[in-house]
Amino acid sequence: MPLDPTNKCSRCLESTCCTYTTEAIGTPRSKADFDHLLWQISHAGVEIYKDSSGWYLLVNGRCEHLREGGLCAIYDRRPQVCRDYDNAWCEFDEPAAKHFALHFRNYDELLTYCKKRFSRWGS
Ligand code: SF4
Ligand code: SF4
Questions:
Q1: Whose alpha carbon is nearest atom 4 of ligand 2?
Q2: Closest ligand by atom to 15 CA
Q3: Helix, strand, coil content of the chain in percent (nearest 5)
Q4: Across residues 74-78, what is the average pLDDT?
Q5: Could you tell me which residues come within 8 angstroms of residue 59 by beta carbon, excluding any fewer than 6 positions away?
Q6: 19 CB less than 6 Å from ligand 1?
Q7: Residue 69 binned pLDDT confidence (cut-offs 50, 70, 90)
Q8: Could you tell me if the CB of 74 is within 6 A of ligand 2?
Q9: What pTM did the predictor assign?
Q10: Domain tally for the chain?
Q11: CB of 12 closer than 6 A to ligand 1?
Q12: Is residue 25 situated within a structural domain?
């Protein structure tokens, strides 16, 4: 992909797509499943969301190869996932969170959800 003004990546100084990772997780159903998620989300930078394709762990953290100005320090040998990423629609256009059906940014938000979902959560 050419890095010239016709490519929006060359105008994207934040490179939001390089500042977090996501990992698909199984759909949580039981109290034990949500208790496990509460442990995970208790860690700095960890969020959880659900969109039309399922549930995901989101781990905030800038890639160590991301240079100021949005350039990749290992562009010629960047991982395959970076090569495969399609910028036809990305966070330069709108925040991904706009399409989240559920989004928990911290322990308290997820705990509130658990208490609503399970009437006997604390017992
Ligand atoms: S894919 Fe999108 S968010 Fe990532 S660097 Fe390119 S324009 Fe920016
Ligand atoms: S390796 Fe390069 S393209 Fe991939 S996430 Fe890091 S900075 Fe972005």
A1: 82
A2: 1
A3: 35, 20, 45
A4: 96
A5: 20, 21, 22, 23, 45, 46, 47
A6: no
A7: confident
A8: yes
A9: 0.91
A10: 1
A11: yes
A12: yes
